Amino acid sequence: MKRLIAIIILAAVLWSCDSNTTSQEGKLSIVTTTGMIADVAKNVGKDSVSVSALMGPGVDPHLYKATQGDLGRLQGADIIFYNGLHLEGKMGEVFEKLQRIKTVIPVARGIDSTFLLDDPIYQNAFDPHIWFDISLWASTIGEVTSTLIETDPDNASYYEKNASAYTEQLLSLHEWVKTEIATIPEDERIMITAHDAFNYFGRAYDIEVRGLQGISTLSEFGLKDRVDLVNFIVEKKIKAVFVETSVSEKNINAIVEGCRQKGHNVIIGGNLFSDAMGAEGTPEGNYIGMVRANVRTIVEALK
């Protein structure tokens, strides 16, 4: 870590001696950690910003470590947005150091803690997967918008207009998800996933959620956890379980095999986007498309 900090400081000195590449382009340069945050920034800033995300498709933010290339991108940005709530657990010290010289904003900081779910493992910590309650995620638009306006006040009305339009889109999506999930019979409205990324989703859309692994993929699970989950699936006669694009299928496959040995056939209902969106240019490569793809997969498997 000392070496990492030294690299950051050196980059700061070098960068201060260089011209700002973003001013040459006439756009604010924004670097985010996840694709979901990048999508908010793109929708609010539109053609006044240049946005890139460090973590692409299939990347687990809980395990992600900044590379030297990432440090260069972070140092070259006008604004850095990250999730916060310890989602990017291995990058915390990097952000702390960068805050001394850059605008570094956790988008979750404006959310009232009464709306956050507690982390069942770590005291005084919250579940960071806030993007799975769309109405909650929409509140991050305000954090992004205010930061853009503070940095670029001449375009304040433009950012406000874009933010309002995107908020309306997300609130409409929120209502669509509620309607779709409600089509699943209530006694079959149970999601089994690789890790506990979907608790906000469960609360917002009235579906029971159980994950084999904890909120962070760094957390451990034991034989008892696996046996308990198998027994639960068999008892409830659950038809399908789900894998995640950013988490190995190995553990969920073991659950499926455990159910089979007990005489209950459960299928893999599909691949859900949890901690990362799909590839750029695909329908799942933006936040709205990712949510729609997840909901369709869940409904088709459980109805």
N/C terminus separation:
49 Å
Overall number of strands: 8
> Strand portion, in percent?
5-15%
> In CATH's first tier, which class of the largest domain applies?
Alpha Beta
Sketch the major β-sheet: 4 strands, parallel
**Which structural class is indicated by helix and strand composition?**
alpha/beta
What is the string of helix and strand elements?
A: HHEHEHEHEHHHEHEHEHEH
Which whole number gives the mean pLDDT? Answer: 89
Which runs of at least 5 residues are low in confidence (pLDDT < 50)? 4-24, 215-219
Describe this entry's structure for a reader.
The structure is a single chain. By secondary structure, the protein is α/β, with parallel strands linked by helices. The protein folds into two domains: 2-174, Nitrogenase molybdenum iron protein domain (Rossmann fold, 3-Layer(aba) Sandwich); 185-302, Nitrogenase molybdenum iron protein domain (Rossmann fold), CATH 3.40.50.1980. Helices cover 45% and strands 14% of the residues. The chain contains twelve helices and eight strands. The chain has helices at 2-16, 21-25, 35-45, 68-75, 92-98, 134-137, 140-151, 156-181, 199-205, 223-236, 250-261, 287-302; strands at residues 28-32, 49-53, 79-82, 103-106, 190-195, 208-213, 240-244, 267-272. Strands 2-1-3-4 form a four-stranded parallel sheet. A two-stranded parallel ribbon has the order 5-6. A two-stranded parallel sheet has the order 7-8.
